[in-house]
Design brief:
This is NAD(P)-dependent dehydrogenase (Short-subunit alcohol dehydrogenase family). Keywords: Oxidoreductase. Belongs to the short-chain dehydrogenases/reductases (SDR) family. GO terms for molecular function: oxidoreductase activity. By secondary structure, the chain is of the alpha/beta class. It is built from eight helices and seven strands, in the order βαβαβαβαβαβαααβ. A seven-stranded parallel sheet has the order 3-2-1-4-5-6-7, with helices on both faces. Helix 4 packs parallel to helix 5. The longest helix has 29 residues. The chain starts with 8 loop residues before the first strand and ends in a 14-residue tail after the last strand.
């Protein structure tokens, strides 16, 4: 743990599992205070319970439905009241809405409420506190923002829009607030394992996916957390208004071998 700095107050949405949980854990190990939220109630959020047990004075958890703007507003307000400040916001909450471009209007609306509007509104609510602290907003998007596959709409469309959100937050709220996007590729989470398990042979499905990555593996959730930790630091002070892709080189490939 790095205790060379005063603990920062870090908000992390979607902190109950997967990438969000790993991001929260990395900041906690760095000595920061993390105020996390997710849709799950605390009694159903196993990873959040463990973080609270491990870091009782540094981790706080709220059940929040980020598609409900009034709940986002209340979460930010209560989080700021806990310590009187907010230094970093990691806007991570979201999920795959892979319904295809012919999706129902309800799928379209839910996707944009969750995967786009919630990020904008969280930033909007946190802006006054972040201006005081000269803080940082990190927006977690996806490599689907840059290239995608059949059937992944409308998810990919909202993730593409987050690139523009990062740009607008940067140019309209800087220099008091610095904003950066992160676009993870295939990360080894429980959700992705469930995708492997849906195949006739999960081992073969995993091996095929791994082979599509020039680095020879898929990503780890803690790697996303470590990138967030760096981007939230003063060492990354000249990085703003851009979205960093971390996909193991997957996007560098023009064609898969199966396509040749």
């Amino acid at each position: 743990m790095n205790r060379s700095h005063s603990p920062r107050v870090v908000l992390v949405t979607g902190a109950s599992q997967g990438i969000g949980q790993a991001i929260a854990d990395v900041f906690l190990r760095n000595g920061d205070i993390v105020i996390g939220c997710a849709f799950s109630a605390f009694e159903n959020a196993r990873h959040a319970q463990k973080m609270k047990a491990d870091w009782p004075e540094h981790f706080f958890y709220y059940s929040v439905d980020v598609t409900r703007t009034e709940q986002i507003k209340q979460f930010v307000s209560e989080a700021e009241q806990l310590f009187g400040r907010i230094d970093v916001v990691v806007s991570n909450a979201g999920k795959n809405v892979f319904k295809g471009i012919d999706c129902e209007e309800s799928d379209w609306a839910h996707n944009f409420d969750l995967n786009l509007r919630s990020h904008w509104y969280l930033a909007k609510c946190a802006r006054p506190a972040l201006q005081k602290s000269h803080g940082v907003i990190l927006v977690i998007t996806s490599n689907h923002a840059f290239s995608t596959m059949p059937g992944c709409a409308p998810y990919n469309i909202s993730k593409r829009a987050l690139l523009s959100l990062v740009q607008s937050l940067t140019i309209e709220w800087g220099p008091e607030i610095r904003t950066v996007g992160i676009a993870p590729g295939f990360i080894d989470t429980d959700g992705n394992q469930a995708w492997f398990d849906a195949h006739p042979d999960a081992r073969i499905a995993r091996e095929r996916t791994v082979k599509k990555h020039p680095v020879g593996r898929i990503g780890r959730p803690d790697e996303v957390g470590e990138l967030c930790l760096f981007l939230a630091s003063d060492n990354a002070g000249f990085i703003a208004g851009t979205t960093i892709v971390m996909d193991g080189g997957r996007s560098a490939i023009m064609q898969d071998e199966d396509d040749l």
